[in-house]
Structure formats: structure tokens, C-alpha cells
Amino acid sequence: MDPTLDYVSRYLLEEEIDELNISAFKDQADLQDIEKPFYEILGQKYPPTPNEQSASSSQSESDLSSSSSSTSKSSISINDTLVESITVMEFHRGIEEGMKFLPIMNKLSTDIKENIVSVDSAEVKYKNSAELKLVEKVDLGMMPRSKKNSICSELDIFEGPNRKISVIDSEEPITDDVYDKVLLDHGDGHLKEEIQSLRETLQLEAISGVLKEIQGDHHELHTLLIHCAEAVAIYDRRIAQELLTKIRLKSSPNGNAIQRLSSVLADALEARLAGVGSDYYRGLIAKRFRTPDIYFLKAYHLYLRAAPFARVFYCFSNRNILVAARNARKVHVIDLGIKFGFQWPSLIQDFSKREGGPPKLRITGIEFPEPGFRPAKRVESIGQRLEEYARSFNVPFIYKVIASQWESIRIEELAINDDEVLIVNCMIRLKNVKDETFEIDCPRNRVLKLIRQIKPQIFIQAHSNRSYSSFFPTRFRQVLSTYAVFYDLLDRTIPHGDKQRLLPENVYFVTDIINIVACEGSDWIEKPETLKQWQRRNIQAGFEQLPVNLNIVKECKNLVRDGYDNRYFVQEDDGWLLQGWKGRSLTTNQFRGRNITLIKKLRYANIKSRQTYTHDFTHLAPARQQLLQNLRIKKIQKKNKKN
Asked: Where is this region: Disordered (predicted)?
């Protein structure tokens, strides 16, 4: 049976090849017309046909034998060429047929000629799947690439539909004066002047009527976005694409707050609908690592003049560090999420002014690893710049880098010394550590337990006072409501004529929005929590909330009142320092002390649970559950004695 099947299969294969050769010669004239332009583009000579070979052989009778042999070889090569050409044509025809079932994605182009972020505002034209041309093939990465640029090209595919982000030229010189102007405290005189200049420019724009020219329909865009998110949630492609088309026409990356936010949300919804949200987000993150630090410094400088949030963060943290290390000779600061280290030059400067001389300062910068062969490249460069600042201010300084997942860090890596005042600092970065949805043994709780084990003098933290639902339509409404506030405050505080006005949005908000809206599962890493949720975690980890220094609170309030828009506010509430815009709390600061007694912690947790949570204590360790049970038994016994 097997020899028979083998014979039949070989017979059919030979018949198929013969038919292919016959059909190839039948369509030889058409193939020549198709193939010749491609050979001309490639700079190659088109192979001669059999007729041309016979004509050339008749010209020289003396070389008849040699020409006949070359003709036979040529015919064989022509056969192979034609078969190969038809195979390629069939392959491309198959690609075109298959692409009819793929979603349409446009490509983000990158322009590095300018020093600002710019976005194409051209009208978006959606094509039917039957009209897909070579442009769509290029956008989907089907054209051949060199091995050297293949990775970057694949990442660039998902860097945002219809969005053109320009980055700072990497060759732009970075002088120390640029950093000093932004990061050092010169009595805040120059910063006050810059804030005042920004406010005056805004007033001139309001008088000239520039703001009226960019007004849009807030409610209509809001409704379209909600309906589009609901269609994306159920993967209704037809309705979602229709709504995305309307959103594109009404939104503008250079318009008012809701128009710019709608443009970003439309990109995120389109990526989620196409199923490439995670690739889109990873492409943006990879591009951030390739972007020079000066780009983020300029964004931070403009954000510092427009909004007081970062300034209050660093003032609150640095003042508490100075109080805790008032008489210390050695200070060790562990910064969870050091990022660009913008906080520490001013602290180094403050230590240099301390009576009795500066302490020996040691900073351990902890950050998530970067992709590639050098996971700590950027964090190491930050340490070099901080060492230069410490040298210029005559402050003894040691810097160490740890680039790994925070929950996997061991105490031995931190090199804790008993003769140092230990301080742990974390500014809005614990939200990027995985929560219970990833692992049963929550990484966030493990990080807090690690901090408790090293027993810092104080643990300073800042959080975004918000959380997002796992149900996508609800989550989208929460994102729309939250970031509408941020876009509104930037719209009200940065002049529309400022060429760099989009920098803060792209640095601080765009990637977070893309991750929350376009990603799902383990790729959804942007998961902040509310103040109450963080308070519960801190209590369970064994931290005691310390009272806020009222003098520091007063200083933070003065920073906000001195030049910033009067719609910003800073206030103290239950040991937390709250910041917000138009009465809405957006960020919180807090610092906590060392471990507290187990009984006190359980009683406090019980009181808090009655106020805001259920009476479920199954998340506690067995020893704590037993202690809680004993407390309840004693309470019942006391009631029985009274009765």
C-alpha cells in the first residue's frame, strides 16, 4: 500500500510541476511586462527570452555548438526564473487575500528634526479591506528589513495611529547650566519669575481671543468616546470604526483639553480593537528609553512652571529627610523608582548648608530594568550626575544602582549599616508593582514587608488617589474622568502659543493612558490605588502613621499660593497631604514610622475595617488571626461578667 501511495504522490507532483511550466510559458509575455520594471528598479538586467537567445545565436555560425549549449542552459534558467516569479506572485496574492481579514492600522512616523512634540492633524481616511495597497503592507511590517534595524522597525509600527511625536535631537548639547537652572534651589526667585511670565502670557492670550478659536463640543466628544469604548468592549468592529472616524474628525492633538485627550484615547481604543495594544505600549516604552534625558528635563521644567505637584512632592520629602537626619553624620536614602533623580540635587544643596557640615550621604537608586543588554544604563548615568553635584557642593557621596523587579530584592543587596539614618522614599511608583491580580502572594505587599524589615527611620511615599475597575467600560469612564482633569489643568496653565506645550502630556500621561486602555491581563501594569487602599496595605505591613509636620505643610501651601493658579490646593487630611485641582484630590503624600505592636495594629485595622471595609481577616497570618480571636473572646467574657 505504501509504495502505491508513494508512486501516486510523485506522479501528481510531477504533473503539477508540468502544468506550472506550461502555464508559465503561456503567460510569458504578461510576465515580462510585470517583471521588467522591478528589474530596472533593482538595477539588474532582465534575463533574455528564448527568442532573443535564438536571434543572438544565428548571428555567429562559427560558435553554433557553444551557443546551442548556452541556449539550453538559458532556457533552464528562464524556466527556474518564471517558476520562482509565479511563486512570488502567488505568495503576495495570498498575503493580499489574508490581509482582508486583518484590522487596519496606520503607522506612527517619527520626526527628529524639531525639538518639540508635534502631531499630524491631517484628516484620517479609512479604507475598505478590499482597497489595501502596498502602504498597508509596509505599515504591518510585511516588507523586508535589514537585520540591523528590524527590531526598531517592528516597534515603530505600533507607536500610535495618526500620531507624530518628535523627540529631542540626541546630538543637542546638554550643559550643566540647563540642569542647574531646573534642579537646584536658587531661592526660587528665578522660578517665581518664570511662573509669573507664564501667567502673563495666558492673560494676553485670553485678551486676544486665541482661546475662543480652539473651543470644541465637550459633551459630544465625551458621548462618542463612551459609545466607542462600549463597542470596543464587545468587539463590534463596524460600529467602533464608525465612531472612531467621527472622533478623529472632531478631536485634534493641538486643540483644547478634551480634543487632545480624545486623540490619545482614540489611539488606545484603535490599538485595543486591533489586538495590538500590548505591542503598541511596549513600542512607546522602548522609544522612551531611546529618548535623551534632555527631553524629559524640558518636560519637567515646563510642568514645574505650570503645576505645583512635583514641587510639593520634593519639598515635602526633602524637608522630612532634613528633619529626620538633623544631627546624623551618615544618611542612607533608598529611592524606590529613582527615574531621572530630579529630586536629589536640591537635597544635596540643602545638606551642604547644614550647620556643622554635611553628612556622608548614600543614595541607593532602585529602578525597573531597562530592555537590552544594559538594564541599568540610565540609572547609572543619573548617579554620575549626582556625584558631580555632590562634588561641587563638597558633600561626601556614595551612589549604588539596583535594577531589578522590586519584589525580588533581598535585604543583603541594600547593604544596611546600623550607624546610618535610613530613609525610604517612593514617589508614585508603587502603582507599577504588581498587585493581587497577578499573584496570590501580592508583590506590592512583599515590597512593603521588605521596607518594614529594614526598619527605616521614616518611609515617605506619594500616591495617585485613584483606582481603575477591571471591567473595561467602567475603567474607560474612570480614565476619561481622571485625565480630563489633568488635561484641563495643563490647558488652563500653559499658553497655547508655547511650542513645547505638549511635552508634559506625552511624558507624564500618554503612555499611562495607552497602558490602562489598550492593555489587558499581565500587560496592564498601570494600577494605582486610592488613599484608603494604600492605608490598609501600610497598616497590614506593620507601619504606623506619623503626624505631619505643620511647618512643612505651611511651606508647601506657600509654594502653591506663590504664583500658581488659585484653583490648585494643598491641604492636610488625616495624616495625608492632599493636592488637587478645582476641589478634586489627585495626589497624596504621607510618611510612616517603624513597626508598631501587633495588638495596636490589629485594633487599628479592626476600626478601619468597620469604617471602610468588611470584617474579613482571612488575609492575615494565622498567628494574627488567633490573636484577633483571643481579643474577641476576652471581649465576650467581659460582657458576660457585667451581665
From this structure: 43-74
Question: For residue 146, what is its C-alpha cell?
Answer: 535589514
**Model-level pTM greater than 0.85?**
no
Q: Per the structure, how many domains does the chain have? A: 4
Residue 357 domain-assigned (yes or no): yes
User: Which letter does DSSP use for residue 373 in this model?
Assistant: S
CATH of the domain at 582: 3.40.50.150
Residues 331, 302: contact at Cβ < 8 Å? no
- DSSP H helical segments within 428-471, as ranges? 443-454
Pair 112, 169: CB distance under 8 Å: yes
Amino acid code (one letter) for 322: L
Task: Give pLDDT tens digits for 446-474.
Answer: 999 999 999 999 999 999 889 999 999 99
Task: Tell whether 510 is covered by a domain.
Answer: yes
Residues 135 and 254 in one domain: yes
Residue 433 has pLDDT above 80, yes or no: yes
Which of 153-157, 339-343, 561-565, 566-570 shows the lowest per-residue confidence on average (mean pLDDT)? 153-157
Say if 625 falls within a structural domain. Answer: yes
Q: What is the DSSP letter of 566?
A: T
Quick check: is 193 in a domain? no
CA distance 517 to 623: 41
Cα separation, 142 vs 134, in Å, equals 9
Residue that wins the pLDDT comparison between 145 and 87:
87
Can you give the pLDDT at residue 64? 39
User: Computed from CA positions of residues 540, 538, 523, 470, in that sequence, does the dihedral angle turn out positive or negative?
Assistant: positive
Largest CA distance in the chain: 132
- Residue 577 phi, psi (nearest 5): -100, 115
> Which residue range(s) make up the domain with 617?
598-643
pLDDT score of 56 more than 60: no
Same domain, 475 and 587: no
